[in-house]
């Protein structure tokens, strides 16, 4: 996602936005803004155009907002996915591996682990974009005894017509499975009410005892590139 500036203020958000727009010192900032929106917590987020640095404008926005508000920079982040983590590894060991092998500084790191289809785990670590690029350039991360290939986690994408993960519905040339249950592949109910054993319609019989295009699906994994 692009970098952004978040403004929290006790003043009415319409008044804050009007004040910022009228501040001549923020003319260049306004030209760099792609979108302004209000959050569920009633803050303002100014999303910048791709490649723009929010830190360059933080002090000017703070000056304009005044003592009634707080200004925070939201940096661009990427989620790095690490495959082939062994079954005994814990999230804190993944974090320790990243800190040991890369210059993470004081960044707060958090890792999440999910079981994979091949008897291992997959780790997900959210990083600033520049650090994520460094990790991807390295190609692998040594976590405990395993050398784990890495990639930037791509956007969640699945065709809602045939359920494959290498295209979207408008480009689909596969069979229409939109009326089937995503969990078991049968017709007449949906996955949230399914009581059948999972059966993937993308994988071959005997290797399909999992939900279609789910985290344990080899067919879904094949459509994604790894370093």
Structural commentary:
Keywords: Metal-binding, Zinc, Zinc-finger. This protein has a five-stranded antiparallel sheet. It has a four-stranded antiparallel sheet with strand order 2-3-1-4. By secondary structure, it is α+β, with helices and mostly antiparallel strands. The chain is globular, with a radius of gyration of 23 Å. It is built from six helices and nine strands; from the N terminus they run βααββαββαββαββα. Among the domains are: 71 residues; 77 residues, 2-Layer Sandwich (Alpha-Beta Plaits). The model has no long low-confidence stretch (mean pLDDT 88).
Tags for this model:
single chain; 227 residues; alpha+beta; Alpha-Beta Plaits; five-stranded antiparallel β-sheet; 9 strands; 25% strand
The CATH superfamily label of the domain at 77-153 reads RRM (RNA recognition motif) domain
Query: Per CATH, which architecture of the domain at 77-153?
Result: 2-Layer Sandwich
Instruction: Kindly estimate the percentage of residues that lie in beta strands according to DSSP.
Output: 15-25%
SSE pattern, N- to C-terminal: EHHEEHEEHEEHEEH
- Give the strand line-up of the largest sheet: 6-7-5-9-8
Low-confidence stretches: none
Q: What assembly state would you assign to the polypeptide chains in this entry?
A: single chain
The number of strands is: 9
CATH fold naming of the domain at 77-153? Alpha-Beta Plaits
Please state the overall shape, judged from the principal axes of the Cα atoms. Answer: globular
In terms of structural class, how would the helical and strand content be classed? alpha+beta
First and last CA, distance: 22 Å
Per DSSP, the total helix count is 6
Indicate the CATH class of the domain at 77-153.
Answer: Alpha Beta
Radius of gyration: 23 Å
């Amino acid at each position: 996602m692009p970098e952004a500036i978040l403004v929290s203020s006790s003043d009415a958000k319409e008044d804050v936005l009007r004040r910022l727009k009228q501040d001549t010192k923020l003319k260049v900032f306004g030209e760099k803004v792609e979108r302004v929106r209000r959050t569920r917590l009633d803050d303002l987020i100014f999303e910048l155009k791709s490649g723009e640095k929010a830190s360059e404008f933080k002090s000017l926005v703070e000056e304009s907002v005044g003592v009634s508000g707080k200004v925070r920079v939201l940096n661009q982040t990427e989620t790095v996915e690490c495959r082939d983590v062994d079954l005994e590894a814990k999230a804190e060991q993944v974090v320790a591996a990243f800190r040991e092998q890369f210059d993470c500084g004081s960044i707060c790191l958090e890792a999440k682990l999910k079981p994979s289809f091949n008897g291992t785990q997959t780790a997900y670590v959210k990083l600033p974009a520049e650090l994520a690029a460094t990790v991807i350039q390295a190609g692998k991360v040594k976590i405990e005894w395993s050398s784990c290939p890495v990639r930037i986690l791509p956007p969640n994408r699945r065709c809602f017509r045939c359920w494959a993960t290498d295209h979207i519905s408008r480009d689909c040339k596969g069979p229409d499975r939109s009326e089937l249950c995503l969990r078991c592949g049968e017709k007449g109910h949906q996955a949230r009410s399914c009581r059948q054993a999972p059966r993937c319609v993308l994988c071959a019989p005997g290797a399909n005892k999992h939900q279609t295009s789910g985290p344990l699906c080899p067919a879904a994994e094949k459509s994604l590139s790894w370093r």
